[in-house]
C-alpha cells in the first residue's frame, strides 16, 4: 500500500450550522436531507441546537450541546437546528461519497419525482442557500406531520424517490468506496495477517500524514471546512 488512508476510510468536516433566519416553522438551521449509502456522526464542538430525525420508527429530536455525539444510518432524514453558534465535527463513512451525490434533500414530492427539477433546486450557489433550505424544510415538515399522524407512506415514497435519483451513481460509488474504506480494510487485514504470523515486518512502514480542515464552502447544513482532498 503506497499511502496511509484516513482511519476507517471516513471523511471529516467541520460544520458551522447555518444561521439564515427562521424557516416556516420558526427554526433556523440547515437543509434536511438523507444519505443513501453513508452513515453520519455529529460531534458537537460548541454552541447549542438540535438534530431532528425521521426514520421508519417515526420522528424524534435530539438536543445538541458541546460534548454530545449522535449518529445515524442511511435513509435517516436529519435536520440540523441552530439555537446559537452550533459548531460540529461531522464524520461520515465512505470518504468521497458524502456531498458528492450520496445525499438527497427533502424537497416536496413533485420536485423529487423530476430529476431535472431536483438538480435545479439542489444546485449550490454563491450565496447562502436560504431558498434551498426553505424548500427542504417544506418537504420535511410534510413528512414529519404525516409520520406523527401515523402515516408512513410519504416517507416511504421519499425513500423510493431518493433511491431513483441516486441509483445511476451506484457504480462510481463502489469505486470510491474501494478507494477509501477498501484501503483502510486492506491495511487492517494485512496487519492482522502479520500479527498472526508473529511478523513485525510491516509495522512502522507507512509514513504519518498530516492535513488541515480548510476552505469555506456552502454545504447543505452550514459552512464547511474539509480535509484537503475531500
Question: Topology, please?
Answer:
Layout: E1 11-17, E2 33-35, E3 40-55, E4 58-65, E5 69-72, E6 77-92, E7 103-105, H1 109-112, H2 115-122, H3 130-148, H4 153-166, H5 170-196, E8 213-218, E9 222-227
Protein name: Cupin type-2 domain-containing protein
Domain Cupin type-2: 29-88
InterPro entries: Cupin_2, RmlC-like_jellyroll, RmlC_Cupin_sf
What can be said about this structure in brief?
By secondary structure, this protein is α+β, with helices and mostly antiparallel strands. The chain has helices at residues 109-112, 115-122, 130-148, 153-166, 170-196, and strands spanning 11-17, 33-35, 40-55, 58-65, 69-72, 77-92, 103-105, 213-218, 222-227. The protein has a single domain (7-197, 206-227), classed as Sandwich (Jelly Rolls).
Overview of this protein structure:
- Helix content is about 30%, strand content about 30%.
- It is an alpha+beta fold.
- The chain has a single domain, classed as Sandwich (Jelly Rolls), CATH 2.60.120.10.
- Strands 1, 3, 4, 5, 6, 8 and 9 form a seven-stranded antiparallel sheet that branches. The protein has a two-stranded antiparallel sheet with strand order 2-7.
- The chain is globular and about 60 Å long.
- The two termini are about 20 Å apart.
- The relative contact order is 0.23.
- The mean pLDDT is about 95.
Amino acid at each position: 500500500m503506497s499511502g496511509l488512508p484516513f482511519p476507517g476510510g471516513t471523511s471529516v468536516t467541520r460544520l458551522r450550522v447555518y444561521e439564515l433566519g427562521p424557516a416556516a416553522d420558526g427554526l433556523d438551521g440547515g437543509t434536511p436531507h438523507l444519505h443513501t449509502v453513508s452513515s453520519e456522526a455529529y460531534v458537537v464542538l460548541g454552541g447549542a441546537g438540535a438534530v431532528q430525525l425521521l426514520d421508519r420508527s417515526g420522528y424524534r429530536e435530539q438536543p445538541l450541546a458541546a460534548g454530545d455525539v449522535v449518529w445515524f444510518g442511511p435513509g435517516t432524514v436529519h435536520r440540523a437546528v441552530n439555537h446559537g453558534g452550533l459548531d460540529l465535527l461531522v464524520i461520515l463513512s465512505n470518504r468521497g461519497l458524502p456531498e458528492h451525490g450520496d445525499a438527497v434533500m427533502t424537497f416536496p414530492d413533485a420536485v423529487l419525482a423530476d430529476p431535472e427539477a431536483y438538480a435545479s433546486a439542489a444546485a449550490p450557489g454563491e450565496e447562502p442557500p436560504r431558498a434551498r433550505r426553505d424548500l427542504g424544510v417544506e418537504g420535511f415538515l410534510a413528512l414529519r406531520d404525516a409520520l406523527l399522524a401515523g402515516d408512513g407512506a410519504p416517507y416511504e415514497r421519499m425513500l423510493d424517490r431518493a433511491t431513483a435519483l441516486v441509483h445511476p451513481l451506484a457504480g462510481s460509488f463502489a469505486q470510491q468506496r474501494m478507494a477509501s474504506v477498501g484501503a483502510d480494510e486492506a491495511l487492517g487485514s494485512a496487519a492482522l495477517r502479520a500479527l498472526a504470523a508473529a511478523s513485525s515486518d510491516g509495522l512502522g512502514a507507512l509514513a504519518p500524514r498530516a492535513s488541515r480542515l480548510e476552505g469555506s464552502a456552502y454545504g447543505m447544513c452550514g459552512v464547511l471546512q474539509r480535509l484537503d482532498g475531500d
